[in-house]
Fold:
Amino acid sequence: MTWVPKTAMVLAAGLGVRMRPLTDAVPKPLVRLQQRPLIDHVLDKLAEAGVEKAVVNVHYRADQLISHLKGRERPQIEISDERDTLLDTGGGVQKALPLLGSEPFLIHNSDSVWVEGVQPNILRLARAFDPERMDCLMLLALASGSVGYEGRGDFVMSPDGLLRRRPERELAPFVFTGVSIAHPRLFANAPDGAFSLNKLWDEAIAKGRLYGIRLDGIWMHIGTPAALSEAEQLLGGSHAA
Structure:
């Protein structure tokens, strides 16, 4: 039986500025793709993979998101409240560590969805995670084949999955999908307050402990209204994960 993390951190506290005007009235995780809130695409896929608990951080229009999640049983929901201070990605996970436990856990952006390939990608990620070698294992997509992504790529990946940053002024083939498995030791020397996960990833790169696997399928970064429209057109009758 495939090991799967029992817990996941779902990052849902962002302001959704690039998604305006759709986020003027609702938080970004409640923006709908194929008539379903983005966060439901994420939580349903976590439940299907066998994740038992999802810790969801909230900030912007938090009451709406908390109300929407109330009553969900799979996965079980716990709220990490950031209404007083927005802590960025790293600080948000750091605050939630007591709820996430001592075992490796998933980190999943609330706007990351994809069309699955042959095998479910969360299960592929779990099978590939090796805590002896890795502090973090990222799910990466080909930048050239992704929807809603217009950057120059994030990472270069060696044949064994070891990652390094995109060299300055160059292109890199892979983009981070916003989904990873992290060992709690990734946060061993994390600062207090607000900070980006990028700081911890750079430390893991320096130690040779940041790895990746390629997503099987089509990744969609739902960051803007235009990207949302493009995803709707692509999906048509397809199933989004």
Summary: The mean pLDDT is 91. The chain has one domain: 7-235. The chain has six helices and 13 strands. The CA atoms of residues 52 and 123 lie 14 Å apart.
